[in-house]
Design a protein that fits this description.
Layout lengths: L6 E5 L5 H16 L5 H11 L2 H9 L3 E8 L2 E9 L12 E9 L8 H15 L4 E7 L3 H9 L3 E10 L2 E11 L4
Parallel strand pairs: 4-5
Antiparallel strand pairs: 1-2, 2-3, 3-4, 5-7, 6-7
Helix pairs in contact: 1-3
Length: about 180
């Protein structure tokens, strides 16, 4: 059965926090581990993807966490949140796409497009008019995907993996047709 036929996307609940914490830490480490010092990566994973942190984010009314499942297995997640954007985002009613991860076997299968549709709807539900995100300047695969689905580069911002300062490109997309 093709992955999209069995893909279910739903909003996370507190009981999902443990599975999400494991999945998020694993996919982040697989994606960025080779490009970061192990101690910096460990610090970032502990701060960003612990069970306690994922529980807080799932319960936060300013955050929507969407989970993508294939046959009851977590294969993707996205988090949309209300947060003031960096100064380079000068659009009306911006909502942040804080996290967007698809497990490697799901790359190129359409999972990301379906998850992006859900993320856009969550941002609209927050009364957003634009979706913004930060993506590591060295993550060319992700940048290409975001541009393919309508994001444009608006500038840069700092992102820290542990104490290591890195540069994220800030991308913005409208949530409604012009």
């Amino acid at each position: 059965m093709p992955i999209l036929d069995s893909l279910e996307i739903r909003v996370a609940v507190a009981a999902d926090a443990s599975a999400l914490a494991e999945f998020a830490a694993r996919t982040f480490a697989e994606t960025f581990g080779a490009d970061n010092r192990p101690e910096d990566l460990r610090a970032h994973l502990a701060a960003s993807f612990s069970l306690a942190q994922q529980t807080r984010e799932i319960l936060d009314p300013a955050v929507v966490t969407m989970l993508g499942f294939q046959n009851h297995t977590l294969v993707a997640f996205a988090q949309v949140r209300r947060k003031p954007p960096p100064a380079c985002v000068d659009v009306e009613h911006p909502i942040e796409l804080q996290r967007f991860y698809v497990d490697r076997p799901g790359h190129g299968t359409g999972v990301a497009q379906r998850l992006m549709q859900a993320a856009r709807q969550a941002a609209r539900d927050f009364d957003g008019r634009h979706l913004w995100l930060g993506v590591w300047e060295r993550n060319s695969r992700a940048i290409a995907f975001y541009k393919k689905v309508g994001f444009t580069d608006q500038g840069s911002t700092d992102f820290f993996v542990g104490p290591d300062r890195q540069t994220d490109r800030v991308l913005v997309a409208p949530l409604f047709p012009a």
